[in-house]
Specification:
The protein has a two-stranded antiparallel sheet. The chain is α+β, with helices and mostly antiparallel strands. It has four helices and four strands, in the order H-H-H-E-E-H-E-E. Helix 1 runs antiparallel to helix 2 and helix 1 packs parallel to helix 3. It folds into two domains: 98 residues; 48 residues, no CATH class.
Length: 161
């Protein structure tokens, strides 16, 4: 019975971690993605909240079974590590960790082209011209912030990428 508990706990820990890690690896901004990889990722993302929670509950029950069967300290530490991974997977399955890399600009600033030394000639920009007013928004910044609220030629705009 103890062997079955260890095998089950190990398998559930690995599966739980894979349910969270595979989509995080396959869905990466700014990297080419395949349709098949995205479909697999979204399927795993939809299943992961339920399955990781089930694995955590069953893992706790298995841990109780194993804990009181006079195990050495090293094995109890391994059980603790498995429970930590199961709990972390259950939490991460409920997070949108893809958005963690995107942070809003708290105090965005605009400068004239002569002062925009951080934008190189080869950099891609989103550009707009309204009336006699022009703006350029560097793609390298837009990719991480997605939105810019600006006023061009007296017209309020939301620019997105």
């Amino acid at each position: 019975m103890r062997r079955f508990c260890w095998l089950s706990l190990t398998l559930m820990t690995v599966l739980s971690a894979l349910l969270v890690c595979i989509p995080a690896f396959l869905i990466r901004p700014f990297v080419a993605q395949t349709q098949r990889g995205l479909a697999l990722s979204y399927q795993m993302r939809s299943l992961s909240p339920t399955w990781t929670l089930a694995f955590l509950v069953i893992g706790i029950l298995l841990t109780l079974q194993l804990w009181y069967s006079s195990l050495p300290r090293l094995r109890k530490s391994l059980i603790g590590l498995f429970l930590l991974i199961l709990a972390a997977s259950a939490v991460m399955a409920r997070q949108n960790h893809f958005e963690w890399m995107f942070h809003p600009l708290l105090q965005p600033g605009y400068v004239s082209i002569s002062k925009a030394t951080h934008v190189k000639d080869a950099d891609m920009v989103l550009g707009i011209r309204l009336g006699g007013d022009s703006r350029a928004y560097p793609i390298s910044l837009m990719a991480y912030h997605h939105l810019v609220n600006d006023v061009v030629a007296g017209q309020p705009l939301v620019v997105t990428y």
